[in-house]
Amino acid sequence: MTADYNVSKLVNYSLRPILLSALAVLTLLFWSGCKKYSTAPIDQPPPPPASSDTLRLSNASGARGAIGVLVQVNLHNVETIGGVALRIAYDSSVLQPSATPYSQPPRASSLENYSGYFDVPGLITFLMISLNNPPGKIQIGDGPILELYFDVKLTAPSGTTSLIFADDPGTPVQDNQLSDTTGTKLILPQLVNGTFTVQ
Q1: DSSP result, 9-35
Q2: Strand pairing of 186-187 and 123-129?
Q3: What is the CATH number of domain 54-198?
Q4: Domain residues of the chain, as ranges?
Q5: Would you call 22 exposed, middle or buried from its count of C-beta atoms within 10 A (0-12, 13-18, 19+)?
Q6: Which residues lie across from 177 on neighbouring strands?
Q7: What is the Cα gyration radius of the chain?
Q8: Cα separation of 22 and 9, whole Å?
């Protein structure tokens, strides 16, 4: 019994410096890690650089009851574009999408996936992109890439309302954006809103 106790005591005393050293090393590593990493900002990818590419909504007007009033989405681009995503808001007390709500201008004719969603009053989301190989593209230049058609409600009040490129406030991503033909470069264009006037 005494021998076992002495052996146990000897082991405990011989291991104590090792355990204390290990604890000291772990403590040092922990605190150095905290100092190095816990207060450091999280690395974020840099935002895309400011672009001179511009999306512009045209101004339009119409009388109450008018059908098929044209609003153009124009693109001025200084580099070749392979895809476009749009989110456009309008006053649903004044306008509603026409029975044929959009058409595809020649400038965007090579983007074969070309469609929009019009079911939410006051909001249009639209996507145009090419998945062909080689992909279709919008050449450098200026002009309409989407033509929207609206009917003016008979109950529309007189005056001017806004047509705007509206990002979803519930998401951190900008909804109105362009991409290059590789699909790997995001381009955030300048946005110029339009107006609609009820005559």
Answers
A1: HHHHHHHHHHHHHHHHHHHHHHHHHII
A2: unpaired
A3: 2.60.40.680
A4: 1-41, 54-198
A5: exposed
A6: 85
A7: 31
A8: 20
Q: HSE of 71 in the Cβ direction (CA atoms, 13 Å)?
A: 31
77-128 pLDDT tens trace: 999 999 999 999 999 999 999 999 999 999 999 999 999 999 999 999 999 9
Q: What is the pLDDT of residues 4-63, one digit of tens each?
A: 444 344 334 443 443 334 333 333 333 334 333 334 444 555 555 557 899 999 999 999
- pLDDT value at residue 172: 81
Residue 111's Cβ-side half-sphere holds a number of Cα atoms within 13 Å equal to 28
Given a contact cutoff of 8 angstroms between Cβ atoms, the answer to whether 105 and 138 are in contact is: no
User: What is the number of residues in the chain?
Assistant: 199
pLDDT in tens, 158-190: 999 999 999 998 888 889 999 999 888 999 999
Q: How many CA atoms lie within 13 A of 142 on its CB side?
A: 6
Tally of CB atoms within 10 A around 56: 19
Tokens of 88: 């456009």
CA distance 57 to 90: 11
